[in-house]
Structure of Zinc transporter, ZIP family:
Amino acid sequence: MEAAIIGSFISAMATVLGAVPLFFVKSLSEKWKDILIAFTAGIMVSASTFGLMPQAVNESGIIGLTIGLLLGIVVLDLIEKSIPHIDVENDSGISTFDSKSLLVIIALFIHNIPEGLSTGFSFASENDILGPMVAISIGAQNMPEGLILAIFLMNSNVTKLNAFLLVAVTGFIEVIAAIVGYFTASYIDSLIGYGLAFAAGAMMFIVYKELIPESHGHGYERPSTYSFIIGLLAMVYISYMFT
């Protein structure tokens, strides 16, 4: 339980850490946004493919993997459909903290819930490597997400301090979700495999629906592709270090 809380806390702190440059920079070039996002995508694909999915098969078999994976994709898809997508990184024309800004924050709150559940499910698994691997991969995604949200809020006339605090709050929802996921999987052992597959499906949906298209939409496809591969290999090496 303590490991799950610590892991989810680290993932949440990654969101906060991503917002730290807010106090030193006012903008981030499209090239570096794409490179960071692609690097994150590589990490998440690696964690899902080499960590979550094999362990889900071990826990619940191929049927459990299929059901959990599809459920994770469907849940994230419903979230995307229910809350209009807003291009946080490019929408800088907001002059006041209006309902659109609030919608972005609410969307990220809901978006972070399945990420927290993924961390909780992973730490409930018997595979000791899986929890840290997922926490690191989600944390890597949270860093650029935190910076992009912070810059968006600044462009909405929110003070740097308030923007930083709002980013922190959106991150800490993952801690609560992780605790819920951990207890659910711990008390119902048969759900662990499904939960891991759910986490893999949710992460893969984020990668292919959001991260890869965003990293290839501004003319920097080649450096983004290399960054993706580096991110994938980085997670492979990290997981190897835990073995």
